[in-house]
Amino acid sequence: MKIASHILVFTLLGASLGSCSNADKTAGSPDGSGPVKTEANTAYRTPSINGSVPRNPDMSLSANFSKKAGVTFSRVSVNDKYVALTFDDGPHPQNTPRLLDILRARNIKATFYVVGRNVDLYPAIARRIVAEGHEIGNHTYTHGNMTKMSDAKVRKELDTTRDSIARAAGVKPRTMRPPYGALLQSQRSWIHSEYGYPTIMWAVDPKDWQRPGPSVVTSRILAGTTPGAIVLAHDLHAPTVTAMPATCDGLLKKGYKFVTVSQLLAMKSDEVPAQAAAGSAP
What we know:
The protein is of the alpha/beta class. It has one domain (67-277): Glycoside hydrolase/deacetylase (TIM Barrel, Alpha-Beta Barrel), CATH 3.20.20.370. Helices cover 39% and strands 11% of the residues. The protein contains ten helices and nine strands. It has helices at 2-18, 95-105, 116-121, 123-131, 151-169, 185-195, 214-224, 238-253, 261-266, 274-277; strands at 27-28, 35-36, 72-73, 82-88, 111-114, 135-138, 199-200, 230-234, 257-259. Strands 4, 5, 6, 8 and 9 form a five-stranded parallel sheet that branches.
């Protein structure tokens, strides 16, 4: 029993250290007899940036899009250089906090399509996402292929994730993104009718899941982004997060303004033809 308890303590300690990108060092005791426990740093602040970075402007924009706006979106017709940056598959214990630091330094608000089981593992990160003004969307609980699921299974995936987000962060998602972009048109329609979720696809895909390297991710996003685009990325992958400072700075220097997906959808004019806003699954 004593051995088992020691193993449990070691496992919990290892998990704690493994989940921190900037773990506190253990301080030595005054008499040098051994390590002593350090207090948690509850007053953590994002480290200051060496040198200046471009800053997304402060904007007071509505996020109240109409359910009539459409069922599927990969982009929105807009009257200025607005773009929505989205991140899939988190929260991740190291990558997501690092990404949030990067976005915070630039006053950028993004949309995170989270996997429900990851929210349950890292609820504090989900809370931080919302606390810093970002949007959270539904990306299912297990990240399975929804085209191969029954309607009952799809509902369970969406419901469980919605409840996990609400429990962790106190908000409910307003949009959804299917894993792999795989969702039948009939599924998109009934999900939109039943949940009010538009299916959010993307206009720019840097294929960061192939791990091409940070510079390639940056160049692909900078080359492919146009006004009204929804940009796909994954905070699951460390190289993608490494690419974000140059990516965000490059877009800001081109005059782009970052908004959440809901803010982008709220810009959609009723006069824009449906086919201009609707995207198709890749």
